[in-house]
Each structure stands twice: as structure tokens, then as C-alpha cells.
């Protein structure tokens, strides 16, 4: 992992929670969900073409009172724009942090993956908590800035747009010279 990168370590694409409930008609619609998924789809195609490992994370809500990503619902399914192939790893999680009570860390270690390229939904919840945990475990992270999104939030009686929330969280994750993650657009990463 960091300070330990060798020729045997690899990069993987980590796609977090691009699921139907976040899209128009879903129970927790996010800002620019379709545009974000399109960027993730381009990344996915690139990683598939290069033969680079791909990990899909799917949130299934089991907490009492949950109203989206409910088990065995269409809303909890991974969105058609990034449907996993049978050969791609799918990790099921029940908490915002994709490492918590999942096999993600073991899978990454077993496959000598030290670098994560991260995209997905919600920037301020699952993407942020997973990225912070990944740094704690020693991973070198890159977030694709136009392939993440969240929803509008209310704070002190004001509506903060999903775009503003995303920008705020990305700036925090990029603090101290990219401590938690480097930031790149889809176009910049693919070129």
C-alpha cells in the first residue's frame, strides 16, 4: 500500500452505490444522477478494456426505518449503466463505509490492490466514509470528481445544492495536498 508499492500491486475501480433508488423515480433521488452514472460508465468501459480489476459496492439497507435500498427491491439493484459482469466482484454493505463488516479489505489485500479509483454515490456519505477508511488502511486513492454526486441538503434553513455539497466534501478529501485522495475528472483520468 502507500510507501510499499511494488510491481506486484494493482489499481482497481471502486464503484460505490450506483443503484436505482438514486435515480429519477427512485425513493432517494440525487442531483445529476444520470450524468454521474454516464461518467462512471465511461470509467467502467475503460477499466474493462484494460483488464483492470473492478469492484461494485451495493448497499442493502437493513436498519429499522430505512426507506431506500430495501432488500429484494428494484431500487436496491445496481443501475443498468454500470451492471456488473459475472467476473466482477460485488461487495454488499449495510453501512456507509464500504469496509465496515464486509470482505472488501480482505479482497483488496488478496489481489494485491494498493490503489483505488473511486466513483459513485453519495459523495458526502458513502464515498467520503469509504475514502477516509481506505486511507487509514493504506490505500492510495483517486476520486473521479464528475463521477460522484449527492442530493440537495438543508442546513440552517437554507438549501445547499448537491453540487455544492459534493464540492465541499471533495475539497475536504483533497486537503493537505490530497491527503485522502487525489482528484481528477473522468476526461483527465482517461487521458
Could you list some keywords that capture this structure?
191 residues, alpha/beta, two-stranded antiparallel sheet, 6 helices
What's the structural blueprint in terms of helices and strands?
Blueprint: E1 10-16, H1 33-50, E2 54-59, E3 89-93, H2 104-110, E4 113-121, H3 123-136, E5 140-149, E6 153-155, E7 158-160, H4 162-173, H5 175-178, E8 182-184, H6 186-190
Parallel strand pairs: 1-2, 1-4, 2-3, 4-5, 5-8
Antiparallel strand pairs: 6-7
Describe the structure.
The chain is an alpha/beta fold and 191 residues long. It is built from 6 helices and 8 strands; from the N terminus they run βαββαβαβββααβα. It has helices at residues 33-50, 104-110, 123-136, 162-173, 175-178, 186-190, and strands at 10-16, 54-59, 89-93, 113-121, 140-149, 153-155, 158-160, 182-184. Helix 3 runs parallel beside helix 4. The longest helix has 18 residues, at 33-50. The radius of gyration is 16 Å and the shape is globular. It starts with 9 loop residues before the first strand and ends with a helix.
Poorly predicted regions are 1-6
The average pLDDT is 94
Helix segment tally: 6
Structural Rg: 16 Å
- The helix fraction, in percent, is 25-40%
Q: Work out the strand percent.
A: 15-25%
How do the SSEs run, as a string of H and E?
EHEEHEHEEEHHEH
The largest β sheet comes out as: 6 strands, parallel
* Termini Cα gap: 24 Å
Strand order of the largest sheet: 3-2-1-4-5-8
Structural class: alpha/beta
Query: How many DSSP E strands?
Result: 8
Q: What is the approximate shape? A: globular
Amino acid at each position: 500500500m502507500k510507501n510499499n508499492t511494488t510491481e506486484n500491486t494493482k489499481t482497481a475501480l471502486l464503484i460505490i452505490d450506483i443503484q436505482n433508488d438514486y435515480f429519477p423515480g427512485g425513493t432517494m433521488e440525487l442531483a445529476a444522477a444520470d450524468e454521474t452514472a454516464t461518467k462512471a460508465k465511461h470509467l467502467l468501459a475503460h477499466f474493462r478494456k484494460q483488464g483492470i480489476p473492478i469492484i461494485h459496492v451495493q448497499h442493502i439497507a437493513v436498519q429499522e426505518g430505512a426507506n431506500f435500498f430495501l432488500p429484494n427491491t428494484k431500487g436496491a439493484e445496481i443501475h443498468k449503466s454500470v451492471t456488473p459482469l459475472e467476473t466482477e466482484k460485488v461487495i454488499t454493505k449495510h453501512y456507509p463505509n464500504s469496509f465496515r463488516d464486509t470482505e472488501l479489505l480482505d479482497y483488496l489485500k488478496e489481489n494485491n490492490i494498493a490503489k483505488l479509483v473511486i466513483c459513485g454515490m453519495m459523495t458526502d456519505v458513502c464515498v467520503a466514509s469509504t475514502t477516509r477508511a481506505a486511507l487509514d488502511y493504506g490505500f492510495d486513492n483517486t476520486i473521479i470528481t464528475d463521477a460522484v454526486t449527492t442530493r440537495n441538503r438543508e442546513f440552517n434553513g437554507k438549501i445547499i445544492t448537491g453540487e455544492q455539497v459534493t464540492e465541499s466534501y471533495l475539497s475536504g478529501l483533497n486537503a493537505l495536498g490530497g491527503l485522502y485522495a487525489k482528484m481528477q475528472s473522468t476526461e483527465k483520468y482517461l487521458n
